[in-house]
Amino acid sequence: MRAQHSLKAAEVARMAVRQVYELTGRQPEGVTSLERSETGWVVDVEVVESRRVPDTADILAVYEAELDEDGDLVSYRRVDRYARGRGNER
Length: 90
Prior knowledge:
InterPro entries: Gas-vesicle_GvpO. The chain is of the alpha+beta class.
């Protein structure tokens, strides 16, 4: 039987964004996906890796953050990197 979970999806998303920012120092653009796993949550956070002029040429990346049931970061990794104009094809 699965234990009751007190964290809401929006709270988990905010926690993931904050933790990815603290680890990378890169400005988050937003959450691109969020799903429950057997051990917690998996959240994809899009960040600006490199600002360019014009901003449509910025380099973006998606980091996958795995959080446990309490919202603590278990792991993270960059799963994609692309120019803003190209879009994420993942």
